[in-house]
Automatic annotation (TrEMBL):
Provenance organism: Dillenia turbinata
Domain of life: Eukaryota
GO molecular function, one term: phenylpyruvate tautomerase activity
Residues of the signal peptide: none
GO cellular component terms given for this protein: extracellular space
Family: Belongs to the MIF family.
Protein name, UniProt field: Macrophage migration inhibitory factor
Pfam family, one: MIF
Length: 110
């Protein structure tokens, strides 16, 4: 089950978070090659955050997946998710960092 955790210092009050979650879900599913039914997206706003020494809009994400990740896919995921955040939350692409974890099923506990 791919899980994308995104934290941002942008307030989510008044933001249509459903559209962000929906778009991120379909993007992750499509690029990793997993069914949308297995993709989880966690979005946290108003997180105290500094990037490059300023508190201008920024975001940090971690994507964990059992397989499906590789350098080419990671590049596409980073570009796609940063576009969503730029469009929906006005977080510049240059102020977003996404970390990838490709894990084995035996490392997860359900």
């Amino acid at each position: 089950m791919p899980c994308l955790n995104i934290s941002t210092n942008v307030s989510l009050d008044g933001v249509d978070t459903s559209s962000i979650l929906s778009e991120a879900t379909s993007t992750v599913a499509q690029l990793i090659g997993k069914p949308e039914a297995y993709v989880m997206i966690v979005l946290k706003g108003s997180v105290p955050m500094s990037f490059g020494g300023t508190e201008q809009p920024a975001a940090y994400g971690e994507l964990v997946s059992i397989g499906g990740l590789n350098p080419d896919t990671n590049k596409k995921l980073s570009a796609s998710i940063s576009s969503i955040l730029e469009k929906k939350l006005s977080v510049p692409k240059s102020r977003f960092f996404l970390k990838f974890y490709d894990t084995k099923a035996s490392c997860l506990i359900f």
